[in-house]
Amino acid sequence: MELLLFSTAFLLTFAGFTLSAEPCPPCGNTTVPFPLSTSSSCNDPSYKIRCSSSTLFFDTLNYSYPIQSINPNTQRFIIQPASLISNTCVTTDKIHQGIQLNNTLPFNITSSNTIVYLNCTQSLLMSPLNCSSTSLCHSYINGTVSASACGGELCCSYRAGGSSNSYMIRVRESGCSAYSSFVNLDPVLQVNRWPEPGLEIQWLLPKETVCGSQGDCDTTKSSCGADTRSGNGINRCFCNSGFVWDPVQGVCAEVMNKGSTDRTALIAGLTSGIGALLIIVIIATLLYKRHRRIVEAQQRLAKEREGILNASGGGRAAKLFTGREIKKATNDLSSDRLLGIGGYGEVYKGILQDGTVIAVKCAKLGNAKGTDQILNEVRILCQVNHRNLVGLLGCCVELEQPIMVYEFIENEWSYSYRDRHNEGIGISGIRVLRGTKTEPTFDERGSRGD
Ligand SMILES: *[C@@H]1O[C@H](CO)[C@@H](O)[C@H](O)[C@H]1NC(C)=O
Ligand SMILES: *[C@@H]1O[C@H](CO)[C@@H](O)[C@H](O)[C@H]1NC(C)=O
Ligand SMILES: *[C@@H]1O[C@H](CO)[C@@H](O)[C@H](O)[C@H]1NC(C)=O
Ligand SMILES: *[C@@H]1O[C@H](CO)[C@@H](O)[C@H](O)[C@H]1NC(C)=O
Ligand SMILES: *[C@@H]1O[C@H](CO)[C@@H](O)[C@H](O)[C@H]1NC(C)=O
Ligand SMILES: *[C@@H]1O[C@H](CO)[C@@H](O)[C@H](O)[C@H]1NC(C)=O
Ligand SMILES: *[C@@H]1O[C@H](CO)[C@@H](O)[C@H](O)[C@H]1NC(C)=O
After folding, report:
1. What pTM, to 2 d.p., does this model score?
2. Which ligand 6 atom is the nearest neighbour of the CA of 139?
3. Among 254, 271, 290, where does a domain finish?
């Protein structure tokens, strides 16, 4: 059951990651991750980039920069900054006023960028930028052959990402004429160990997919509705209850609600627990019933035996042997003491404590009725004056089987042993005795014998 729940959750999780919008085809060998979009019909078109001759480009307001790498997990990509026009200290994008992002678009410049400004005017000295003689820009110029033209001009450096410079690296006549950028620069490094120039751009996590109608949405997971948050009349595919917007994958993902999984786990646990409990209870009941039956049977036997005890209280009856005595005499009814097996049961040879050799007849215990009969017969036999019976010493009613104890007479027992197929030994012979005098005459006979 848990397995079923688990696999269902597993399937749902995976189903949750199918894209609701068309993914963009790769650009050359480069995949275009969500939400970046190379056309108005794939991923999220508000994250527009451009694919041209198998290369991705990021278009700013006035210019275009090749994308070097993309990390969809951190929502960042790195563009290649403009280079210097050879033998000048002017970058190629100066005519476009450097890098200027449309600040209504979801992209900005990250604070991982270290910017060096080159060929600056004195007005920059008023800026918060580091334009001192120890500024990193001097190291850059000194260590970079292509920037040699910049030597002797004022230069500055700064770390990008402030509110005023997260959308532009402005290059102009009244400011600086050139720049370069380095991602995650360690300033203590020698210039020849600096990374390649690059500018890291970050994108905002996307909102739900824009839609014109419900048909644009994944019907099972989202519904097309007005985006009241922006209030610009845009409709978006808002996730249905049970789903939550995943801005990295760009899908409505199944809510892995801890409470509900806990509940289902609890229900599953309870159900299987109750099932196990039921089985245990059934088994316990059966065992108990069986035990009760055995106990009841034993109690009935005990009662019968008590009856025999009481009946034999008359003083005349044969001796009542204990189970212990019988076991000791017959070496625990061992098979090498077995004299024979008859219709009545088994006969063992035994030696009593005082040396008397005995024959022990164990009644065969069949069904309850048989047991009762045998017990009855044993009782009768034990109550009969044993003068009338050849060699009856007594009986034992303590063991599971009622037992008759006889004197052991070699010939007789060997005869009986031989005759075992012919009703065998024991009670059959007594029946004859009983038969000659007709039915319930044992007590009479007993008293007559007195
Ligand atoms: C694309 O990859 C293939 C093999 O992986 C390579 O031969 C080819 O030059 C690559 N193309 C580009 C544009 O990187
Ligand atoms: C520095 O910038 C100015 C203004 O753009 C330009 O005229 C000059 O040529 C630049 N210096 C070098 C060495 O390129
Ligand atoms: C840069 O683009 C903006 C908006 O498109 C435009 O107003 C501006 O004139 C452009 N500047 C240059 C130097 O191209
Ligand atoms: C900036 O982007 C918005 C949204 O795409 C667009 O409407 C606007 O025209 C853009 N601004 C410029 C100056 O291009
Ligand atoms: C400018 O940068 C250098 C090198 O990083 C540093 O040693 C210096 O203290 C900075 N100066 C100012 C005024 O920030
Ligand atoms: C420029 O670099 C050379 C070695 O490459 C070094 O000797 C010199 O001091 C550096 N000059 C400045 C101003 O950093
Ligand atoms: C740039 O974008 C990130 C999210 O991508 C945002 O946290 C940060 O505030 C933005 N920076 C500015 C100056 O708007």
Report:
1. 0.60
2. 14
3. 254
